[in-house]
Structures are given as structure tokens and as C-alpha cells.
Amino acid sequence: MREAISVIGLGYIGLPLAMCLCEQGHRVIGIDVDPVKLRDLSAGRTQVMESYEGEPLASILQRHLASGRFVPTGDWAMAAEASSHIITVGIPVHENGVPDPLPLLAAIRSLGAVLRQGDLVLVRSTLVPGMMEQDIIPLLAETSRMVPGTDFAVAYAAERVAEGRAMYEFRTLDVVVGGLTPACGERAKALLSTLTDGQVHLTDLRTAQLTKVIENVQRDVNIALAHQIKEIAEHHGVDVYELIRLANTHPRVRLLEPGLGVGGYCIPNAYAYIAASLPKTRPVPLLTLARRINEEAPIRAAAQLERQLAALGKRLRESTVAILGLGMKDGSNDTDSAPRRSLVNWKSE
Ligand SMILES: NC(=O)c1ccc[n+]([C@@H]2O[C@H](COP(=O)([O-])OP(=O)(O)OC[C@H]3O[C@@H](n4cnc5c(N)ncnc54)[C@H](O)[C@@H]3O)[C@@H](O)[C@H]2O)c1
């Protein structure tokens, strides 16, 4: 069995990642602060809906618990059994749009205290670009009392997988890695190359952090465009899906389809992370507008429903509405990060 790896944060990303590493023959110490999650995982239970080669995640989890290859724990001292540490604790964004780095920084602080000479710290969480240099690396230096880049390696490689396909995509997607030093980047590349058959692209820390949020915000803008096209199509009495299908027959056009909004951790938060990384004197009006259009998508859908019911002589507030699918997207049971201004909370005028 190869050396142990710690995976810090056992959520939608961390747990399937830990299982992929176990499948590769690594011993994995999985660390989380949620006692309920740890109790469930230790009993072989998980709500995360993933599978690999037809085997559900819970069954993979039970196999690796039984073999001792996976150890879920809240005990940070156990992270010292690992020489590589992969962090997947996220940065939630509050209702006011402000990212909250405290859970991630708490994890960094705890890790720093158990870090050893020669270890690798690989951050996979999506960050406010610049956090590696401004917050994470200084905090690791302070809590470990060692010199990052000399005594231990630090690198950043954002996670790109999509929920529902995570275990397949960990094995196949390209990864962009930024090291604190070229040697740190190479060390992270060596680890990631045991996980993915895709290419591992080496760059600097800041470019690696920005690449992830730019990928996500590109999707936010493209989805906003789809929502705007829906309005245009409606005005012209044209079927928006047919319109988009036909436009996409052009070789250089690739429109997305409109939906009920944008859910998940990644796409809605990208704007907040980018905005938090920029001074107020450098606004990003295109991104701001796209975010607003997407945030308001559920409200527009509810208003449309109200109009259509009215045309049938019915009132929305007296109707029972079935919403088919509460997950943040198809194939996901993640309802926490479904479009924020939900239809359920919508109040008609
Ligand atoms: N979910 C996705 O589809 C997806 C895709 C790509 C990237 N990402 C990114 O991956 C990261 C993780 O996302 P997620 O969906 O797995 O989040 P999640 O909320 O499901 O999991 C985070 C886990 O971290 C744990 N945690 C919180 N504070 C901790 C601490 N101090 N120490 C140890 N554990 C702690 C939580 O209990 C939770 O289990 C985020 O940065 C997200 O943006 C997510």
C-alpha cells in the first residue's frame, strides 16, 4: 500500500476524491468537523450520489472502511500519518454576497499544527483569487513554524469535477496546478498524475486560482445569455429550445439552454469570489449583470407561471404547484445550493 494521504473536508468533493484515492491503492485519512457526517461515514452511509463503474459510492465506502484503507475521523493528530494533505473545505457565500473563508482557514490552521517536514499541502477548494498567497500560505507558516516551499511543499489545483460524475471525472479531467515554487508544482503534479489520466498543466499560484473562477464565471455569463434569449424568443412567439438548437448548427455558436436558475457551489459563487478579489474601483459590470439575470431566473419563471394560470382563469396563490426536481441540477440530490431565491419562497405581487 502506498503512503497515506489526508483528505480534509468529506463533502460532495472530498468523499468521492477520498474513495478514488483508495481505489488507486492509497491509504486515506479523511478529516471533517461534522460529527453527524463522521458517524454516518464510519457506519458506511453517505448522502452523496456518486458511483463508479456501476458501484454506488456507499458500497465503495464500505469496502474501503472494511479494508482499513479509509479512516474517517475528526482527530487532526491522525493527519500526521499522511505526508500529502488535500484540502476540499469550501468558502460559502453569505446572503449579502460576501465569501466566508473562516471554515477553510480553520482547516488550514488545524492542518498547520500537525504538518511535518517534507509534507505536501494541496488546496483543491475554489478560492477568492489571491488567498493562497495572502492567507493560506502565511497561516500554514505561522501554525507549522516551518518555511513553506522549503520545509514543506504547497500547491493549488482547483477541483473541476461535476457532482454526479465526480468519480469518473477525477480519473479523466485535465488539472491546472500552481506551486509556490516549481518544485512544489512538480510534487503536486506527481500526486495528481496518480489520480487522473488527463494532463496536469503546471503554472503559477495566482494563474491557477484565477483559472478556476474564470471557468465558472464563463458558464454564469453563458447561462445568463440563454436566459436573455428566452425573453427575446418569448416576445417573438418562438420556441426558445428550437431557436437554440438551430443557432447551434452554426459551427462557431454554442449556446446553452435556459433553466430555472443556476445552482451549486461553483457557478453562483464565482462572481462573489472574483468581486472580493478586486478593488471597488475595478467593477466587472458584465459579470454583475449576468449574476443578477441568473439570480432572478426563478422569479421570472414564477411570474410566467402566474401569467399562464391567469390566462386559464386561475390564481397562483390558490393553486398547488408541483416542482419536479429540487436538486441544484439534474442528477444531484444537493438541495442546499439549488437556486437561492427559490420558487417556494416567491411571493406574487
Ligand atoms: N460540489 C461541486 O460540484 C464542486 C465542484 C467543483 C469544485 N467544488 C469546490 O470544492 C470545494 C468543496 O465543495 P463541496 O461541494 O465538497 O462542499 P461540502 O460543503 O459538501 O463539503 C465541505 C466539507 O468540509 C467540512 N468542513 C468544514 N469546515 C471544516 C474544517 N475546519 N475542517 C475539516 N472539514 C471541514 C464540512 O463539514 C463538509 O463536510 C468547494 O471549494 C467547492 O467550490 C465543488
Q: Could you characterize the architecture of this molecule?
A:
The protein folds into two domains: 4-204, NAD(P)-binding Rossmann-like Domain (Rossmann fold, 3-Layer(aba) Sandwich), CATH 3.40.50; 212-345, 3-Layer(aba) Sandwich (Rossmann fold), CATH 3.40.50.720. The protein is 43% helix and 12% strand. It is built from twelve helices and ten strands. Helix 1 (14-23) packs across helix 3, helix 1 crosses helix 6 (166-172) and helix 8 crosses helix 11 (285-295). The longest helix has 31 residues, at 205-235. The mean pLDDT is 94.
Q: Which SSEs are present, and which pair or pack?
A:
Blueprint: E1 4-8, H1 14-23, E2 27-31, H2 35-42, E3 51-52, E4 55-56, H3 57-66, E5 70-73, E6 82-87, H4 102-114, E7 120-123, H5 131-144, E8 153-156, H6 166-172, E9 175-179, H7 182-193, E10 200-204, H8 205-235, H9 240-247, H10 266-277, H11 285-295, H12 297-311
Parallel strand pairs: 1-2, 1-6, 2-5, 6-7, 7-8, 9-10
Antiparallel strand pairs: 3-4, 8-9
The protein binds nicotinamide-adenine-dinucleotide.
Nicotinamide-adenine-dinucleotide is lined by residues 8-14, 31-34, 37, 88-90, 103, 106-107, 125-126, 159, 161-163, 264-266.
